[in-house]
Specification:
Elements: H1 4-16, H2 32-40, E1 45-51, H3 67-78, E2 84-90, H4 96-106, E3 114-118, H5 123-126, H6 129-145, E4 149-153, H7 166-183, E5 187-188, H8 190-200, H9 202-206, H10 217-232, H11 249-256, E6 261-265, H12 269-280, E7 286-290, H13 298-305, E8 315-318, H14 329-343, E9 352-355, H15 367-382, H16 398-409
Parallel strand pairs: 1-2, 1-3, 3-4, 4-5, 6-7, 6-8, 8-9
Helix pairs in contact: 1-15, 3-10, 4-6, 6-7, 12-16, 13-14, 14-15
């Protein structure tokens, strides 16, 4: 399979970091009162992000954080003195109907100065548009009744499916924009932001998505940038925000406590991880189950990955071999994403997951392998997973690179 055109986009994205919106004239701050508090840092500012699975912490962003975390980072970059905390109130599958049932406990009880509201991807499947509009209006009224400002956030663009056709989603996006205009509630038009990326490059848009409807962490960084610009009038870049450190907190906690660690790993790390851990923790008890990959296509590995969540492991090491192929660039990218998605717990990370690109196991790659390397590194970073990258010209063995990485993880 030739994946050159797909890889060219990967190389561009990898070089640039996450996708940053094209430069536009920044709007004036939507919330001058909130901005004043952020700028002075004189008192704490509490922001609640209210939404569904796109808002909550789930597999599609690595199961450790989501755009609420990125929004806090972005607001602190815009105003270094800010005393701000952002609370995530996103629950998978929820609509504005569910939102109204839990708004008192999950949102208003925090006494926020600002509430961001992002619903629609589930409403479009089972809540009529008129009811959706009324529910959004009620959410705004309830928040304002306790003195909180409200930022409506249109949902992200999606990959077209029968269950969530783009044309129908655009109708719900229009409803939110209309409610914002009628209620004088500012709107962060995240849908338009994702569509601008799509207009520039359909493949580039694909690199913001973890599956057909959920953005990955690069997409969540875009959310936070768009929200911050609407709130403050200041453009902020999150391109340099690294994945969480340490990458394997649960594994490290277990070995430090003298408890056994159960590992599920693709080769060659099925043979390397136990001695590498024991080199740093001599008494570590490590039980490794190899993840078979030989002779398998990438879609076959995707199918195998569906069993991971039932295995009862503490650490999963994903290392898609160069030999694992697919019938098309689109299938290759989709299957690669889903191997990582399925390796993660559904919601907050219950076990550690890391993913290593091909170059870690092979110091010199052929030109066609460089293309797969670019795809791997781009998708792993976008998933917010821990990884190891081999510097250009570094001929160290995989054992040495793994050992060096583990040493950094233990600091």
């Amino acid at each position: 399979m030739s994946i050159r055109s797909f890889a060219c986009v990967a190389l561009c994205v990898l070089a640039a970091g996450c996708v940053t919106p094209a430069k536009r004239t920044a709007p004036p701050p939507a919330f001058p009162g909130v901005v004043k508090l952020l700028a002075t840092g004189a008192e704490p500012v509490r922001v609640v992000c209210f939404g569904d699975s796109v808002t909550g912490v789930y597999y599609h962003t690595g199961s450790r954080r989501a755009y609420a975390d990125m929004l806090e980072i972005a607001l602190k970059r815009a105003y270094p003195s800010a005393n701000v905390s952002v609370i995530n109130a996103g629950i998978s599958g929820h609509t504005t109907v569910n939102a109204l049932a839990r708004i008192d406990q999950d949102v208003l009880a925090h006494k926020p100065q600002l509430v961001t509201v992002m619903f629609g991807l589930n409403d479009m499947t089972r809540v009529p548009m008129e009811e959706y509009a009324n529910n959004l209006s009620t959410i705004i009224d309830k928040c304002r009744a306790v003195g909180a400002e409200v930022l409506l956030c249109t949902p992200n663009a999606v990959i077209n499916t029968e269950g969530r056709p783009i044309a129908k989603l655009e109708q719900y996006v229009a409803v939110m924009r209309d409610v914002g205009a009628k209620k004088n509630a500012p709107v962060a038009d995240c849908y338009a932001g994702f569509q601008r990326v799509r207009t520039n490059s359909e493949s580039g848009f694909g690199y913001l998505m973890s599956d057909e409807i959920h953005p990955n962490m690069d997409g969540h960084k875009l959310f936070a940038q768009l929200m911050t610009e609407t709130i403050t009038g200041k453009p902020v870049s999150l391109d340099d925000v690294e994945s969480p450190f340490p990458a394997i907190p649960k594994t490290l906690a277990l070995v430090k406590e003298g408890k056994p660690v159960r590992v599920y790993a693709m080769p060659p790390y099925d043979a390397l991880i136990a001695p590498a851990l024991r080199a740093h923790f001599p008494s570590a008890e490590v039980a490794v189950t190899p993840w078979p990959v030989e002779g398998k296509t990438l879609p076959q590995l995707e199918a195998d990955s569906k069993a991971v969540r039932e295995m009862g492991v503490d650490l999963v090491i994903v290392a898609i071999p160069l030999e694992a192929d697919a019938d098309s660039p689109e299938q290759y990218g989709r299957s690669y994403r889903w191997v990582m998605n399925n390796a993660l717990s559904f919601s907050y990370q219950e076990w550690d997951v890391v993913a290593f690109p091909p170059s870690l196991a092979k110091a010199k790659l052929a030109d066609e392998d460089q293309e797969k390397e670019a795809i791997a590194r781009t998708l792993i970073r976008a998933q917010d997973l821990g990884t190891i990258t081999r510097a250009k010209g570094d001929k160290a063995t995989p054992e040495k690179l793994l050992s060096q990485w583990l040493r950094k993880q233990t600091r």
